[in-house]
Amino acid sequence: MRNVHNRLRKNYRILEKLNPTGKTTVQKNVLQNMGFNFTYFTSIYTTKKGTVYYFIYDQGYLPLEEKDKYVLVKKD
Predict the structure, then answer these.
(1) Kindly report the CA angle at 2 between 74 and 22, in degrees rounded to 5?
(2) Which among 62, 72, 76, 54 is positioned nearest to 18, based on CA atoms?
(3) CA 20, CA 22: separation in Å to the nearest integer?
(4) What is the domain extent for residue 70?
(5) C-beta pairs of 21-24 under 8 Å, 24+ apart in sequence
(6) How far is 8 from 42, CA to CA, in rounded Å?
(7) Separation between Cα atoms, residue 33 and residue 49, nearest integer Å
(8) How many structural domains compose the chain?
(9) H runs (alpha helix) in the chain
(10) Cα radius of gyration rounded to whole Å, the chain
């Protein structure tokens, strides 16, 4: 349990650092180079249009159709 929590905290700090304004776009390799692990998240949000966001607490990311890009968002 401690290992999962530590992993979530690390992912959260990475998203928080890369997304100071509340919405931004980053390359997948930037996240990976910082040690982001895509298997750990706290919730999934699906919009009415079917867009799937993955959240770690209030920080989220959306994989874009454009290869290897992600939109980072912050839930208010």
Answers:
(1) 10
(2) 72
(3) 6
(4) 2-74
(5) 22/73, 22/74, 23/71, 23/72, 23/73, 23/74, 24/71, 24/72
(6) 8
(7) 31
(8) 1
(9) 2-18, 28-33
(10) 12
pLDDT exceeds 90 at position 31: yes
Sign (positive or negative) of CA dihedral 38, 7, 25, 47: positive
> Could you read off the pLDDT of 4-30 as tens digits, one per residue?
999 999 999 999 999 999 999 999 999
Residue 52 · residue 43 · CB < 8 Å: no
What residue type is 52 in one-letter code?
V
Note the pTM of the prediction, 2 decimals: 0.91
